[in-house]
Amino acid sequence: PTHSQTAHHYASPPVQPIIFAPPQQHSIPQGHQQHPPHQTTYAPAIPYGTAGRPVPAAQTQQYPQRPAVQQQQQQPVSAAAGPPMLHPVRPTVVAAAAAVARVCCITFNEHNKIRLMGANPETISSLRHAIAACGVGLTEDAPIRNDGHEYRLTTRPWHTKEADSIPPQLLLLAILKAMAHCRWNVVQAAHVSKMDSDKDFVMFESIEPGLGAVEIAEVDMFVMSLMGKDKIRVIGAGPSLPAIVGTIKQAFATHWKHSVKKETTQEKYHEFHMGGDPWAPSKSDEAMAKICMAQLLANIGSLGFKLYVSLDIHRGSKDSENECLVFRRVGRVWR
Hints:
The chain has 335 residues and is of the alpha+beta class. The protein has helices spanning 3-9, 57-60, 69-74, 121-133, 166-181, 241-255, 286-301, and strands spanning 103-109, 113-117, 138-144, 148-153, 184-190, 201-206, 221-227, 231-235, 260-265, 269-274, 305-311, 323-329. 23% of the residues lie in helices and 23% in strands.
């Protein structure tokens, strides 16, 4: 077949128009009023209500049809009409900036090593000067892996006997003061290493930037060493030493039934030799020893000092001391 024959073969049949006959006129009985013939209005689209019923034509006339979107975009928007409608926009994912490091830690390793991890160069330099100020030399002063710095000392401060324990405790005090002056406050000390030669490590947190610089007077600290079974040694207290010694005497006089055997005062420390072994008491004196220690802490707190950190830097040695209690004066940058 030809193209014209194919098109004629598939062509749709012509649509026949539908003709509606006019309504028939009926005779109206006498006495009845004649009404005008009913006229039906056909809308292009019959809206439906909420129940699915057609809405009357009279009601549809109260709500004109919304103009097309193209017409709304072409019409200018007046100021009285308010801001234009904003369409939702897919948010753009932006990578967060790297946060400034707020924590660091110090570990006391083997017999003569100090490792500082997570600190800035200013803190590394300040710690170096603090070690040198204590008269301790360095055989190694270099970075280590994983954002750390190691100081290897010429002496063996973490493995000393009782008679030689004053310099290591003064070194510990100098380290904590240097860290505090660099805006690092102690959070906690703990022993998490399984190595026999490793000691407690100290965790630090940076203070808020709005506090400003830390003055030397704001890092007032001293060490109280609990040695053996019956000794207390106060180290590096400076001008506060007489008041601290008085509070210690008052606590033991009121809560400990044994008297002081011996009291020694030197240039850098003050030592009490107590009777009754308060750090290794008998069962009958155990409760009394705990209450006495609590009263001692309360008396020191009345002078403005509070326990800053408690750690053992001689852990693992035969002459290991019980604990080093470091106290710090409460102030603006530490409470």
